[in-house]
Every structure is written in structure tokens, then in C-alpha cells.
Amino acid sequence: MEPELQDSDYGALGYIVGAMIGDKVRFLSLIPPTKDELKSLGAAMAASGAVALYHVRGITSEADKYEMPPEKITIEEKQIQEIYKTPPAGYVEPDLIAFGCPHSSVPELEQLARLLDGKKVKKETWICTSRTIKNRHLALIKRIEKSGAKVFCDTCMVVSPASEKFKCMMVNSGKALKYAPNLCG
């Protein structure tokens, strides 16, 4: 039985695949991912490569119209795990933990709220989402902020000049993993 991908694994997979395929359109065979997992996968492929379009068999209607290309790429679980094990050059303990690159959706915010309920964050924690989501889900945002985490709207940790004051950022995003070292120092 093949292991299922979990949460940030789709960002890690996208980081690997994007770097491998550059700007090619790809047809992927995956255990059906959620919308948020597809979002993470696509954002990471675009950041580490230049993937603007991809198809997932059984998800995107175009994928079922075409034969799978003859060349195949197989990504092993150990390759995904290596993304988590490889610290950046000059690694130090993270002093910023950041979520929401791309912006956190309502289900992602609900998951973070469940994880933070009754707890206080020990490190600076940022969660990025859209203003529309924040305004429509104020009770959810307040649950998160009660932990000491900060919710920011319509920006991202990789473009915020405030992130430059931190030495090491921990992220759950393949997109942020690619951009943060270059844009945030």
C-alpha cells in the first residue's frame, strides 16, 4: 500500500516536481487531493519551476481526455521526506513560524484554530489569508489570535518587509520554501 500524502507533503511534492520539469505541462496521477492540496502543489510547482498548468487524472476534466505522456517521473516518499530534513544554510532555531503562502483557506484556518485552541504560541507565528475570508470568519480569526498568533490579510510572509528582521522562518509551503531565502534573506 502506498503512503498517502499529508498536508504540506503536496507543497514538498510540488517543490520537487517543479524543479524537475521546469515549464512543461504535466499529467499527474495522485490519490485525489483536496482543493487546498492542489493549491499547495500548484503554487510550489510554479515557484520551484515555471509550471503554469497541470492536470490531475480524475480531478481536472482535461486529464481524462488525453493519454498519459510516455515519459514518467516517479517521486518516492523518501524524496519528499528529504525536503523536511534539509535545513537551510546557516540553520538556526526558527524565530518565525508562518502559514498561508498561498493564502490560508477557511478549512486551513479551521485546522490551525483546532491546533491552537487552549494554547499559546511560543514563537512569533504569522498566518496569512485574504481580507474577504477574515471579514467573513471573524470568530475563527479571534480563536486563532487568542493563542498569540497574528493573522495578516492580503499579503504574504515572503513579500513582507517585516520578515527581514527574522533569522530563520519555518513554513508549511513549498512556495515559501523556494521564495523566502531569496526574498527575505
* CA gyration radius, whole angstroms: 17 Å
- What gap, in angstroms, lies between the N and C termini? 41 Å
Mean pLDDT: 86
Work out the helix count.
Answer: 7
Low-confidence sequence ranges: none
Percent strand: 15-25%
| Estimated structural class | alpha/beta
Shape: globular
Order of helices and strands: HEHEHEHEHHEEH
Summary of the model, kept short:
This protein is an alpha/beta fold. The protein is built from seven helices and six strands, in the order H-E-H-E-H-E-H-E-H-H-E-E-H. Helices cover 38% and strands 15% of the residues.
Overview of this structure, please?
The chain has helices spanning 9-21, 35-48, 77-85, 106-116, 131-136, 138-145, 174-183, and strands at 26-28, 54-56, 96-104, 124-129, 150-153, 169-171. With 185 residues, it is an alpha/beta fold. It is built from seven helices and six strands, in the order H-E-H-E-H-E-H-E-H-H-E-E-H. The N and C termini lie far apart (41 Å). Helix 2 packs parallel to helix 7 (174-183). The strands form two sheets. A four-stranded parallel sheet has the order 5-4-3-6, sandwiched between helices. It has a two-stranded parallel sheet with strand order 1-2.
